[in-house]
Design goal:
The chain has 13 helices and 4 strands. By secondary structure, it is mainly alpha-helical. It folds into 2 domains: 9-30 and 195-319, no CATH class; 35-184, no CATH class.
Length: 322
């Protein structure tokens, strides 16, 4: 929110992420492709993630309720669904290991490869390959050794970490390591949420943020301004249509350390409702709250009349109905 008496800016309403910060602005519009195949793959992956989440939740619940329980039969959880989830949690453009296998090459025949890997793990025939040694330069001129695992080893390692995390998470407190991640605390029900803006009224009835831009720039470059707003709003739609992709971007960008937490957060926030919010009501609501707190002096009417511009949002609402 900007006070027009102190800032000459235009404001466009939007509904970005309210927990993960800025990554929505960094997402690109998806490339056009074969829609039928993409939809089928997305549905299959969504069902697979749901099964993995349910299975891990059962393990997590057992570990939390029976602290002294010894888990002696976990191999059946190492199924194709868990391996698939671990595969999609990997970085797409990571350097290959000794096998020379890239992420995209493995995905080309993903299902038969995962079935074969699953069979080898359960038969006891799986053997990890040696890691490829490489060196990266340090700021002081020295080199830091780096071991790059083969792609299938990364998949098995990732699946194992997901399974063990479900057991050991209950043994750690929020202060057990550095600065705890907020999603981690929420998942383990540590602390209290004062306001959950995604669901608590009246906060959930308004945009959570405003997009502010220089008024002169907006007047001189209306097309560029509209393109920026379009990209942000379509990014919000992508959070709904392809949450796995967005969760991977959040992890790769360092916004959250855990892929499963990012995926959970994306399922909780109403990114698909930005078309339903009223921007003027949002300005009025937050301006009154800020004025009551003594943070601004301007009235909501003055801010709406002097500092807002809904042209781009209204045009994009009509264009992006689907």
């Amino acid at each position: 929110m900007h006070d027009p008496e102190k800032s000459d800016s235009g404001i466009v309403a939007m509904k970005p992420m309210n927990k993960a910060g800025r990554p929505a602005a960094e997402l690109a519009e998806p490339r056009p492709g074969t829609k039928g195949n993409a939809d089928q793959q997305s549905t299959h992956r969504t069902q697979s993630r749901a099964r993995v989440t349910q299975a891990l939740d059962r393990v997590r619940k057992a570990a939390r309720q029976r602290k002294k329980e010894q888990f002696t039969s976990l191999l059946h959880h190492m199924n194709v669904d868990l391996l698939r989830t671990a595969f999609y949690a990997l970085k797409r453009k990571a350097a290959p290991g000794v096998d020379g296998m890239m992420w995209a090459d493995y995905e080309a025949d993903l299902e038969p490869r995962l079935e074969d890997l699953h069979g080898r793990v359960h038969r006891g025939a799986y053997r990890p390959r040696p890691s490829r040694r490489t060196y990266i330069p340090k700021a002081d001129g020295k080199q830091r050794p780096l071991a790059i695992a083969a792609l299938e080893d990364k998949i098995v390692q990732g699946a194992t970490v997901m399974l063990l995390n479900a057991i050991y998470e209950g043994d750690f407190c929020g202060f057990s390591y550095g600065f705890p991640d907020t999603q981690d605390l929420s998942a383990r029900r540590i602390g209290n949420v004062v306001v959950k803006s995604a669901s608590d009224r009246p906060w959930s009835q308004y945009f959570c943020c405003m997009l502010a831009g220089n008024r002169d720039f907006m007047r001189e470059h209306p097309i560029a301004t509209k393109h920026v707003v379009r990209a942000l709003l379509k990014a919000a739609d992508i959070c709904v249509t392809d949450p796995a992709r967005v969760a991977r971007i959040l992890v790769d960008g360092g916004f959250t350390p855990r892929y499963d937490y990012a995926l959970q957060m994306l399922s909780e926030l109403p990114y698909d409702k930005w078309r339903e919010y009223d921007p003027e009501d949002t300005i009025r609501f937050y301006a009154l709250r800020l004025r009551e707190a003594g943070l601004i002096k301007s009235s909501p009417q003055k801010i709406i009349s002097d500092g807002t511009d809904w042209r781009f949002l209204n045009e994009l609402k009509r264009e992006l109905k689907a």
